[in-house]
TrEMBL record, chain A:
Pathway: Amino-acid biosynthesis; L-tryptophan biosynthesis; L-tryptophan from chorismate: step 5/5
Reactions it catalyzes: (1S,2R)-1-C-(indol-3-yl)glycerol 3-phosphate + L-serine = D-glyceraldehyde 3-phosphate + L-tryptophan + H2O
Pfam families registered for this protein in UniProt: Trp_syntA
UniProt organism field: Paludibaculum fermentans
Highest taxon, organism lineage: Bacteria
InterPro entries in the cross-refs: Aldolase_TIM (IPR013785), RibuloseP-bd_barrel (IPR011060), Trp_synthase_alpha_AS (IPR018204), Trp_synthase_suA (IPR002028)
Active site: E52 (proton acceptor), D63 (proton acceptor)
Identification of the protein by name: Tryptophan synthase alpha chain
Family assignment from sequence similarity: Belongs to the TrpA family.
EC nos: 4.2.1.20
Function: The alpha subunit is responsible for the aldol cleavage of indoleglycerol phosphate to indole and glyceraldehyde 3-phosphate.
Keywords: Amino-acid biosynthesis, Aromatic amino acid biosynthesis, Lyase, Tryptophan biosynthesis
Enzyme kind, highest EC tier: lyase
Automatic annotation (TrEMBL), chain B:
Name of the protein described by the UniProt record: Tryptophan synthase beta chain
EC number: 4.2.1.20
GO cellular component: cytoplasm
Residue numbers spanned by region Disordered: 385-404
Protein family according to the UniProt entry: Belongs to the TrpB family.
Cofactor(s) the record lists: pyridoxal 5'-phosphate
Domain annotation Tryptophan synthase beta chain-like PALP: ranges: 58-382
Originating organism: Paludibaculum fermentans
Function: The beta subunit is responsible for the synthesis of L-tryptophan from indole and L-serine.
Length: 266, 404
């Protein structure tokens, strides 16, 4: 099966089940690269539908403190791009959950972008999302990803103009990721207003599923956004669990139980 | 060699370098800024107001000074110094800050944020915010705040809030990241007054345009004074704003050598310097593609320089392009060479340079003895008052009471 279909089918299955897809972000390598596979599987058991596997980067300008610290810990633990690809492969061997590589551009450019795409595809990765890649800079990257059958997920933001939303929709495959508010990643008590409208605007521009992320950390957020979006993305809330229980043997159980609370699944 | 085009392409690329590598949230604000900048450039009122501020507030034109004693001492090139250190606030940074604050006001932004390394850009930003009554927040690495205490105080006296950045290397790179996080969060009310020819389009182009007055003046001053252009121009390169400011007017003059001087730091080992051209490779950091100090896995390397203003992992993208085309040459001067050059300039000309500028001086001193009949220009981007503590640490023999 071409990997791009894995994401499409997942969103379709969630739609049939009458619920939003839960897209779970996990910084690969935190607290240690040897534990990431176990944590990814715990997320899946807890009800995550799609995994965003984060490549740690030294200068994550779009991330708040929780994910910044997770990146620092992962880098200190020796996580490399090559190791992240091995982790993806190990997860794929044990799970059918779609995997999206989530990264800043520099580590991948350094690795060699075409080599990255070849190896990511072989490892069972389904798509990529790059926080600091604007559509304006994306032609060669998108061509490489398409050549290797990887979905190209781009971000839409509350500041995006109509023209830019069209571009984002045009460049995306798999799904479109809507950033719920201006700012960096991190948990919030409430979800910003205006997200519903942004999702509607995008839905008028593309048949792709639309997922909403940034600031989502509670079951009530998932329920509210699930009323109008096809997916919700949660990151910092998971990484906070990893931060708090990283040293503990039952980290995976803690993460699974937290995920179950968010997903509302049995 | 083909003449370098002076304008980046529509996407802000200088050859393959530059561009816009930022989260989508910042793309519309960057487009808005670019539009505002182009409109302002066409607006006679804007140009006149900026010109007046540069002349009557900042102190332009700055002198082109012939350093006769220094030249004599070295016994080679005839050395001229462009005195950007005589500008209000003590460095070239004020040129760009005046330009950007007028733009921010045009765009209706009430809040200004900036990053600073050595504090010269922070002081210039705090100054223009005071002048226009705008809120000012400056991000500065904890380590740089320690090294540049005097400038921290100056910013506070001018009414700015200085936020200590404790992540990463606690220097300029981390201050830029924090400023970008603030901008992405407060983008509707806030203008990010970026302090070098760095970051995403339109910043490298815009900052260059606000600093090109340096080179334009120097060119006219040389023609008037000695009837010819200099043979070689030296400028230090951190982000590269003072260098691009002085280079721009001469890029079309193939006979004028352009020399950018990076921080050679303590040694050539990764992490011990900020020499991006000799120790780095192209990569993306903080919004732009350019030469970057990074490890084999694409993680951004720590840098070191005795001068906080040069202590940065990425170089401005236009410099990367000038480098690849061979139009400018990039070398580095070590901490030791820069410190020695500062002392030489102080002793021969009565000018204490900023440590950043001392790197440019060091390279000119190294070459001058063998360059008879040549004319040199050193862009002295800033004055050394802010570095007094570092000079004292490094010249302990000067800090003792005279015995006799």
């Amino acid at each position: 099966m071409p990997s791009s279909e894995r994401i499409a089918r997942c969103f379709e299955a969630c739609k049939q089940a009458g619920r939003p897809a839960l897209v779970a972000y996990l910084t690969a390598g935190d607290p240690h690269p040897d534990r990431t596979v176990e944590l990814a599987l715990a997320l899946e058991r807890g009800g995550a539908d799609v995994l965003e596997l984060g490549v740690p980067f030294s200068d994550p300008i779009a991330d708040g403190p929780v994910i910044q610290h997770a990146s620092d810990r992962a880098l200190h633990a020796g996580t490399t791009v090559a190791r992240v690809l091995e982790i993806a492969k190990e997860i794929r061997a044990r799970s059918a959950m779609p995997i999206i590589l989530f990264s800043y551009m520099n580590p991948l450019l350094r690795y060699g972008f075409d080599r990255l795409c070849t190896e990511a595809r072989a490892a069972g990765v389904d798509g990529c999302l790059f926080t600091d890649l604007s559509v304006e800079e994306a032609d060669s990257t998108v061509a490489a990803m398409k050549k290797h059958g990887l979905d190209t997920v781009f971000l839409a933001a509350p500041t995006s103009t109509e023209r830019r939303l069209k571009l984002v929709a045009e460049y995306s495959t798999g799904f479109v990721y809507v950033v719920s508010r201006t700012g960096v990643t991190g948990e919030q008590a409430t979800v910003a207003g205006g997200v519903h409208e942004l999702v509607s605007q995008l839905k008028a521009l593309t048949p792709l599923p639309v997922a909403v992320g940034f600031g989502i950390s509670r079951r009530e957020h998932v329920e509210a956004i699930g009323g109008y979006a096809d997916g919700v993305v949660v990151g910092s809330a998971f990484m906070r669990v990893v931060e708090e229980h990283g040293a503990s043997a039952d980290l995976a159980a803690q993460l699974e139980s937290f995920t179950r609370g968010l997903s509302g699944r049995p | 060699m083909s003449t370098t085009t002076q304008t980046p392409d529509a996407g802000g690329h200088f050859g393959p370098y530059g561009g816009r590598y930022v989260p989508e949230t910042l793309m519309a604000p960057l487009e808005e800024l670019e539009r505002a900048f182009h409109e302002a450039q066409q607006d006679e009122g804007f140009r006149a107001e900026l010109k007046d501020l540069l002349a009557n507030f900042a102190g332009r034109p700055t002198p082109l000074y012939e350093a006769k004693r220094l030249s004599q001492t070295l016994g080679g090139a005839r050395i001229f110094i462009k005195r950007e250190d005589l500008l209000h606030t003590g460095a070239h940074k004020i040129n760009n800050c005046l330009g950007q604050i007028l733009l921010a006001r045009r765009m209706g932004k009430q809040r200004i944020i900036a990053e600073t390394g050595a504090g010269q850009h922070g002081v210039a930003t705090a100054t223009v915010c005071a002048l226009f009554g705008l809120e000012c927040v400056v991000y500065m690495g904890e380590e740089d705040m320690r090294r540049q205490r005097l400038n921290v105080f100056r910013m506070r006296m001018l009414g700015a809030r200085v936020v200590s950045v404790t992540s990463g290397s606690r220097t300029l790179k981390d201050a830029v990241s924090e400023a970008m996080r603030d901008w992405v969060t407060n983008v509707s009310s806030t203008h990010y007054l970026l302090g070098s020819a760095l970051g995403s389009h339109p910043y490298p182009m815009m900052v260059r345009e606000f600093h090109r007055c340096t080179g334009d003046e120097a060119r006219a001053q040389f023609l008037e004074r000695i009837g010819r252009l200099p043979d070689t121009i030296f400028a230090c390169v951190g982000g590269g704003s003072n260098a691009i400011g002085v280079f721009t007017a001469f890029i079309g003059d193939a006979g004028v050598k352009l020399v950018g001087v990076e921080a050679g730091g303590r040694s050539g080992q990764l992490g011990e310097h900020a020499a991006r051209f000799s120790g780095g490779s192209p990569g993306v950091l903080q919004g732009a593609y350019s030469y970057l100090l990074q490890n084999e896995d694409g993680q951004v390397s720590l840098t070191h320089s005795v001068s906080a203003g040069l202590d940065y992992a990425l170089v401005g993208p236009e410099h990367a392009w000038l480098h690849d085309q061979g139009r400018a040459e990039y070398v580095s001067a070590t901490d030791t060479a820069a410190l020695a050059a500062a002392k030489t300039l102080a002793r021969t000309e009565g000018i204490i340079p900023a440590l950043e500028s001392a790197h440019a001086v060091a390279e000119a001193l190294r070459r001058a003895p063998g360059a008879k009949d040549e004319v040199y220009l050193i862009n002295l981007s800033g004055r050394g008052d802010k570095d007094t503590d570092i000079y004292r640490e490094n010249f302990p023999e000067l800090d003792k009471d005279d015995a006799e």
